[in-house]
Amino acid sequence: MIVTFYSFKGGTGRTMALANIAILLARTGARVLAVDFDLEAPGLWRFFRHLERDLGNRHGLLDLLVAQSENRSETLADWHQYVIPVTFDGGTVSLITSGRSDDGYPARVLGFDWQKFFRDSDGGSFIEHLRAEWVGQYDFTLIDSRTGITDTGGVCTIALPDLIVPVFAANHQNIEGILEVLKRAQEGRQHLAYDRSPALVLPVLSRFDSRTEHESANEWLDLVAERFSNFYADWLPGSIAPRKILERTKLPYVGFYSFGEKLPVMDPGITDPESLGYALNSVARLIESHLGSAAALAAGAGTSMPDRSAGGLVPVLSMPSAAGRTAAAIMGGVPPQNPNFTGRERMLQELRMMLRQAGRPAALPHTLQGLGGVGKSQIAAEYARRFQSDYEIIWWIPSDYEISIRRAFLSLARRLGLPESEDVMYTVETVLDQLRVGRPSPDWLLIYDGAGEPGALRKYLPSGSGQVLITSRNQSWINHSTVIEVDVFTADESAAFLARRWVGIGHEDAAALAERLGHLPLALEQAVAVHTETGMPLAEYFRLLEASPGRVLDEGETGDYQQSVAQTWRLA
Question: Quick one: which of 161, 152, 304, 169 has its CA closest to 250?
C-alpha cells in the first residue's frame, strides 16, 4: 500500500506525522519504506538522524531521478542503491532521503526539469516502475509530498498513492486548498496511461487545540467533517459519523513539539490518551488495517498495535463492546492469510460497505462472480481476515458439493454448542434458526465458496441480521443476489504481484508476461511457481508457452489455487 502524506500549506506537522507513523508500522513487523518527495524543502531524514548517522550526506531521490534522466541504457536506474535502513528498538524503516544536503543541493533541485523528465526520459514509466516495485517489496510505502500545487505534488497525489493522508490546520485556506488538490488528483488519475482507481482519503486535522477553545473547536470539527464527508463515505461504515473518526484522528497541538524534530511515539510513547503519540497511533492503526479498524477506533475501543520492542502488545484501551472486537470469536474454514495477496483494495472497501449497509440486515446475499482463476476465493478470504473485527462469527462453507455444505454446517453446529441430530438437515436448520434470531450473536458472516446453481444452495442460506457472501462462476446469481463482478488484475496489480513474487524481473518483462497471460491471477501465480521450481528463464517460458500452452499451463505448484490454468480454462 502506498500512502501519500500531503499538506497544502507548510507548518502542519505532515513530515513529523509520517516519520512517527513509519515507526509505529515498522514495530508491527511490517516492511516500511519512507520516501522524501519534498525535494524543495526536504527534512524527513532529520527525524531519524539520532537513529542513523550521516543521513544528510547520503544520496537520495533527487540523485535517483537525475540518474534516470541521464540514463541512455535500457536498464532502469536502480532505486535500491538509495535505500538506507534505519534500525531502532522494535523494527526497521527503509528510508530514501531527498538527496545530499550540501551546498550544491539547491542548484541540483532547480536544475531538475520535471517536464523534460517526463517528455525525454519516459519519466511516467519510471514512476510507474517505482510504484510497482515498492508495492511488491514493502507492505507500506509512505510518501512525504511537496506542499501546494506542483509537479512533485502531482506525482505524489496522482501517480503513486492508494491512500492520500491530507494533513492540515483548522483554517479556510488549508481546507479549501486541500479539497481543490484532492479534486485534481482524482480527476488526474482518470487520465493516467495505467489503470488507477480513485485514491482513498484519510483526512488528518493537525495542530488542533481543543483544550481551551471548546466552542470554536466543535464548530471546526463539524465544518471539517461536513466538507470531507464524501471522502469518508468511500470507506467509513455508514453507521459511523465522520466527525467521530475525525475526533479520534486529530493531532493535538503540543507546544513542546514545535521545536526541533522529535518522535513522540518513542518518547514519551502512545499510552496517554491526551498525548500526541496516542493520536498518531490511532492514525497508524487505521493505515495498518487498510482503514478496516474504523468501527473499533470510533468506539474508542481496544485496538492494540503489535510492538516487538515491548515484547508484546501496546495497549491503547480495552472495551468489551462489539465495536471493540479485534477478531471474530468463532472462525472456521477460512483459508490461511495469503502473504502474497496483491491489489483489490477498492473492491475490498466497496464490498465491506455493501455488506455492512449501515448496520442493517442485507436484503440479498452478495456474490463475487467471475471466471475461474480471477481470484474470487482469494478476495473473500482476504475480506474475512482483514475485517474479522466486524463479526462475532465467520464460517467458510465449501459449496461445490452438497455434502461439503452439510459438513461445514455440522462443524459450525459443534462450535456453537448445538445438539446434533441423526437427521443432518435438521441440524442444518437448527443452525440456520439460531443465526436468524441472532444467537449467539447477530454479527455473523457465512461465506459460500464455489457455489453452483442458486436453486441448489437456497435451502442452506440463512436470513437475519448477518451477512452472506458467495463466490461463483455461475452467472445465474445475478437474479438472486447483489453481484460484484471480479475481473482479472489491472496492469498495475499484475506488475505489483510479479515484482513481489518473481525475484529480479524487470518492469518491461513483467508487463510482457502479464499481457501474455491476460493478467489472470491464477496464470501469473502458476508462471511464478514454474520459475521458482525450475529456475526457468522468462524467455524459455515464453517459448514453451507458445509451443505447448496446455502443457505449460498445467505445470507449477500453486499453493493459493486448487487448479491449474489449463484445468480452469477447460472448465470455463
Answer: 169
